[in-house]
Amino acid sequence: MKKRLLAVIFCLSMPTGSALAADGATLFLANCSVCHQANALGVPGQFPSLAGRVDRIASTPEGKQYIVGVALNGLMGPITAGGNAYSGFMPSFKMLPDDQIAAILNHVAGLPGGTDATIFSVDDVVAGRKKSITPSAMVEKRKALEAQHPLP
What domains are there in the chain, each with its CATH number? Predict the structure, then answer.
């Protein structure tokens, strides 16, 4: 009985859902850092840096939609980011709740300074979910965006 009570108390003390979404840094570490590293600087030639780039890409409405699209749909194929070539696969994170995806994106958009940005809203993620496309089609969207203006 004591073990069961302790387990219930432990579970109730764990932050979930919206409580976790408020901490984009924790969510980033749990979901993204294995590839992009804890500081979001990536590994040249393997995983692109996100720090100092996501906010710049999201400075246009098309760029913002692209970033949300990558988080929801993943990305597969060759890209150039920060002057380095990458040919790989980023999985979709559409299994995460909308508020958590927005929190992760805002955290990364605030890097390298460390202060979460307020660029992405839950509504942006909800709208992005309505446009489900393949990971390889996200590469094509990136090429179209790159044709409009160079991406960092």
Answer: 22-148 (1.10.760.10)
What is the C-alpha to C-alpha distance for residues 107 and 24, in angstroms, rounded to an integer?
5
Instruction: Quick: pLDDT tens for 35-78.
Output: 999 999 999 999 999 999 999 999 999 999 999 999 999 999 99
Contact 119, 105 (CB under 8 A): yes
* CA–centroid distance for 8 within its chain: 32
Instruction: Tell me the β-bridge partners of 88.
Output: 77
Q: How far apart are CA 16 and CA 41, in angstroms?
A: 27
pLDDT number for residue 116: 79
Q: What are phi and psi of 84, to 5 degrees?
A: -110, 145
pTM as predicted: 0.84
Q: Which 3 state secondary structure label does DSSP give 119?
A: coil
Which SS3 state, helix, strand or coil, does residue 6 take?
A: helix
- The whole-angstrom separation of Cα 108 and Cα 34 is 14
Residue 4: predicted pLDDT = 43
Bridge partners of residue 87, in order along the sequence? 78
